[in-house]
Amino acid sequence: MSIIRARDNPRVRRWARLTADSGFRRNEKRVLIEGPHLVAEALSAGLKLHALIVSESGLKRKEIRSLVGEREPVILADRVFGLVADAETPPGIAGEFEVSQVERGESGPALFLEGIQDPGNVGAILRTAAAFGAGEVVLDRACADPWSPKVLRAAMGGHFRLALRQAADLVPDLETFPGTTICTVSRGGTPLSELELRGRAGWIFGAEGKGVSEALAARARVKVTIPTAPGTESINVAAAAAICLYASRRIQ
């Protein structure tokens, strides 16, 4: 059983770049997914696996050996695996998977994300969207890369239950969305508890702090406000998305 121990091995350099470089991921249409849970989710979702990567010590773990099964993994020395993995504590297994732009989802609410740069927020929104049966999530290029390691960890497998797309401009998607487009505003909108929905909802969420841009807000058919305690300026965008999706599910 051969083990890669050279830090400058070409495959190791490639995997490290997939972990760190969003432009490289986009051009290659590949992503490195780390950890037993996410690798298992990606395999179950049918993503095409190009390489299964296991650390020398990881191969001793029962759950990782079970995932490997009859596959031929690439085994890396622990210190070399650490160069590839993004997690502070390397999880012992990773997979190079192929990802591609998917077609528009046809059921469930849709989410349009504009300029949300915090990976934790993007991941939390994807996790919530999957939990509440969203059909699709469209992110503009100013958002954190949805396939970055931090977003993948925060989403906990939500990626694999969504029609997930990136777009240079959200306007065309909003203009052709076959349902009611809605954005949240800090004040002056319809109270969320009074919202009435018919058909699909397309929720628009904007950047932390700035919110939805005027250009996108102008294309929302409905503006809603989440009532908060007096003196509260705003709430976290991931929390707002969770509240709105829960309310949308109850209305439907």
What is the percent of helical residues? 25-40%
Structural class, by secondary structure, is alpha/beta
Number of helices: 10
Distance between the termini: 56 Å
Spatial order of the strands in the main sheet? 7-6-5-10-8-11-9
Could you give the order of the helices and strands?
HHEHEHEHEEHEHEHEEEHEH
Please indicate the percent range of residues in DSSP E strands (runs of 2 or more).
15-25%
Low-confidence stretches: none
Q: Round the Cα radius of gyration to an integer and report it.
A: 20 Å
Q: Tell me, what's the shape?
A: elongated
Mean pLDDT: 92
The number of strands is 11
Largest sheet: 7 strands, parallel
What does this protein look like?
The protein is 34% helix and 21% strand. By secondary structure, the protein is of the alpha/beta class. The protein has a 7-stranded parallel sheet, covered by helices on one side. The chain has a 4-stranded mixed sheet with strand order 1-4-2-3. α6 links the parallel β5 and β6. The longest helix is centred in the C-terminal third of the chain and has 15 residues.
